[in-house]
Amino acid sequence: MLNAKEILEEGLIVLDNAKGKPAQVGYDLSIKDISKLKGGGKILKDKTIVNQLESVGINDSDNGWWLSPGTYDVMCNEGCNIPANRTAMVRQRSSLLRNGAIIASSIFDPGFKTENIGTVMIVTERIFIEKDARIAQMYFHENNEGELYDGQFQNDKQRK
């Protein structure tokens, strides 16, 4: 697993709008936006149709979101640019987990890149999350070079 210095030296995290910070192992990701999954997703043989999303408006007086139990699409301020010899994963920070929210992330494949890392968060208890708060940590493993990701989610095409 790479340490924070190696992650930054290799340019694996896109820092244009970063509000997170280097962690001991990995890089802390900060929350940019939250949408609620509304259903309608399909897993087909040749492609995935993602759930419909409903924007969760930010509470201006608190500068954040009050979330009820449910499943949410979260978008981070940070992006990534994963080379052929790296694979990444995202896990919730312990403070999020202690408050009943779990980041459920799949593997981020070699060759994947995006301006804003996105994943899914499952909320089991009512929780408040302030905009730009650190919610997750992205960490990277070394792997043998192989085929690069060039799927339907490259550069967050599903959100556009």
Record keyword descriptors for this entry.
160 residues; mainly beta; Deoxyuridine 5'-Triphosphate Nucleotidohydrolase, Chain A; 7-stranded antiparallel β-sheet; 3-stranded antiparallel β-sheet; 14 strands; 43% strand; globular
What are the SSEs and their pairings?
Blueprint: H1 4-9, E1 13-14, E2 27-39, E3 42-43, E4 48-49, E5 52-55, E6 64-67, E7 70-76, E8 79-81, E9 86-92, H2 94-98, E10 101-104, E11 113-114, E12 118-123, E13 127-130, E14 134-142
Antiparallel strand pairs: 1-8, 2-5, 2-7, 2-14, 3-4, 6-13, 7-12, 8-11, 9-14, 10-12
Concise synopsis of the structure shown:
The protein is mainly beta and 160 residues long. The protein is built from 2 helices and 14 strands, in the order αβββββββββαβββββ.
Principal-axes shape call: globular
The assembly state of the depicted protein chains is single chain
Helix content: under 10%
Output the helix-strand order.
HEEEEEEEEEHEEEEE
Number of DSSP-assigned strands: 14
The CATH architecture designation is Distorted Sandwich
The tally of structural domains comes to: 1
SS element count, helices: 2
Outline the structure in words.
The strands form four sheets. Strands 2, 5, 7, 9, 10, 12 and 14 form a seven-stranded antiparallel sheet that branches. The chain has a three-stranded antiparallel sheet with strand order 1-8-11, with no helix packed on it. The chain has a two-stranded antiparallel sheet with strand order 3-4. The N and C termini lie far apart (32 Å). It has a single domain, classed as Distorted Sandwich (Deoxyuridine 5'-Triphosphate Nucleotidohydrolase, Chain A). Helix content is 7%, strand content 43%. The longest helix is centred in the first third of the chain and has 6 residues. With 160 residues, the protein is mainly β.
